[in-house]
Amino acid sequence: MSSRTTLLIIPREGHTTHIWKSCLGDGIFNVDGELWRKQRKTASFEFASRNLRDFSTVVFREYSLKLSSILSQASFNNQEVEMQELLMRMTLDSICKVGFGAEIGTLAPSLPDNRFARAFDTANIIVTLRFIDPLWKMKKFLNVGSEALLDKSIKIVDDFTYSMIRKRKAEIEEERGTGKNNKMKHDILSRFIELGENPGSNLTDKSLRDVVLNFVIAGRDTTATTLSWAIYMVMTHSHVAEKLYSELKSFEEDRAKEENVKLVQINTEDPESFSQRAMQYAGFLTYDSLGRLYYLHAVITETLRLYPAVPQDPKGILEDDVLPDGTKVKAGGMVTYVPYSMGRMEYNWGPDAASFKPERWLKDGFFQNASPFKFTAFQAGPRICLGKDSAYLQMKMALALLCRFFSFSLVPNHSVEYRMMTTLSMAHGLKLRIARKS
Ligand code: HEM
After folding, report:
1. Gene3D superfamilies under this entry (predicted)?
2. Which of 348, 331, 328 lies closest to 340, judged by CA?
3. Sequential DSSP letters for 94-126
4. Which residues, at least 6 apart from 53, have a Cβ–Cβ distance to it below 8 Å?
5. 73, 96, 296, 301: which one has the fewest Cβ atoms less than 10 Å from its Cβ?
6. Distance 326 CA to ligand 1 centre (A)
């Protein structure tokens, strides 16, 4: 699994929909009208469900702990880590678990290669590059070069996805046969398979594939790149790092009191006690308790203001229209809103717009949200991101654990620059040294 340049957002209409079709099929990102409305309705209902939330909380906690143990090992061995790559592995593993119920196991100290993960990355990059490759249609027709590789990669992704669909369907059938229907599975695929059994739902294996892969694509890179930028922002703003650490430490004490447990004695030179304490801390991180970490919430939101994972989001124009400022737009053309610029405009955020200041989101210590039409990292209106709460849940879980137990410094001479593909990743990754905190 090599890259972190991948995708997201689909400018719908005409040739752009066509470009993404190979990857996204008729999934929620790539369709409009009735097809979109139906998927949006079902997916919103699922995302609001307590079952999915509880299942995701367990998954996010488990993978955050895995990452923490890799970092701990690296710090004891004095090894550098490429954090963005580790975060990409963590978010891919977790979204595959939440999406398909599958363990793909890419987040491990040996950085194992995984056929599905590699093919998924390759497909995303090639599809993204179609936007700047005028010859892609010809290559596709002749099945040569990047298009031949794309074909192969999509086949690997599809084989894996269809095998998961068959497996889940067989498991659901078997449980019914044995009358053990109470063991309901909470991954998104299983829920959609069950919904597909309602008369009139018309969910074929192909539509199940599209639904699930769209979620994997939507949630993976966006969350990993935001986490990378957030860690970078925290480590380069010492007052933020201190305030955050202090919030996370007080939280630990409060939670131990609430749970009526003694905190495990920690010795940062002893891997065993360090890991025991991290596990205890992870146990304190629940959906409800994470909701109390306002400063952490502000740190993530401020990161997204300056480094929105989807930096620009183009849209096709259906009909001639006039924008509120009088600009005329023509059917068949494109308009793009640019969260990267909107997040930095003094007009929107005041004279300190360029500064990283989580405090701007707090009032009397509580987090205050801004209108999505001002803070546009998640879009606004009917197509606003469906995974926002889930993304915050995962990001808060991971950052609470990492910023409580570690401090980070940049490997000397490593340069952090953005690469603007469909998502705003770090062009050379994020190479870090890790220190443990007591
Ligand atoms: C920091 C993390 C994330 C950011 C910044 C983000 C941002 C966005 C943006 C800008 C859109 C609008 C795309 C458009 O205009 O078509 C969107 C849509 C969407 N997002 Fe997210 N997203 C994030 C995480 C997630 C996660 C974790 C999931 C699910 C697991 C998710 C699921 C979706 C879905 C399903 C849509 C399509 C909604 C529709 O077209 O009706 N997102 N996201």
Report:
1. Cytochrome P450 (1.10.630.10)
2. 348
3. HHHHHHHS------STT----HHHHHHHHHHHH
4. 287, 389, 390, 393
5. 73
6. 29
pLDDT attached to residue 199: 73
d(CA 4, CA 1): 9
CB 331 within 8 A of CB 319: yes
Q: What is the pLDDT of residue 1?
A: 32
Q: pLDDT digit string (tens) for 235-288?
A: 999 999 999 999 999 999 999 999 999 999 999 999 999 999 999 999 999 999
- The best mutation among 228, 304, 385 to test binding of ligand 1, ranked by most ligand atoms within 8 Å of the C-beta, falls on 385
Residues 189-193: contacts with CB under 8 Å, at least 24 apart: 189/99, 189/100, 189/101, 189/164, 189/165, 190/101, 191/46, 191/49, 191/52, 192/42, 192/46, 193/165, 193/168, 193/169
Question: Is the pTM for the entire model greater than 0.90?
Answer: yes
* pLDDT (0 to 100) of residue 8: 33
Q: Which residues of the chain have pLDDT under 70?
A: 1-20, 179-184
What's the burial of 188, exposed, middle or buried (CB within 10 Å: 0-12/13-18/19+)? buried
CA distance 168 to 175: 11
d(CA 315, CA 124): 20
Lookup result for tokens 């995302």: 47
Task: Name the closest-CA residue to atom 3, ligand 1.
Answer: 222
**CA-based end-to-end distance of the chain:** 34
Please give the C-alpha separations between residue 310 and each of 4, 341, 418, in angstroms, as whole numbers. 14, 12, 12
CA distance 291 to 296: 10
> Which pair of tokens denotes residue 223?
């969350």
Number of neighbouring beta carbons within 10 Å of residue 238? 10
Rounded-to-integer distance, Cα 146 and Cα 153, Å: 10
Describe the chain by its helix, strand, coil percentages, rounded to 5.
60, 10, 35
Closest ligand 1 atom to Cα of 313: 15
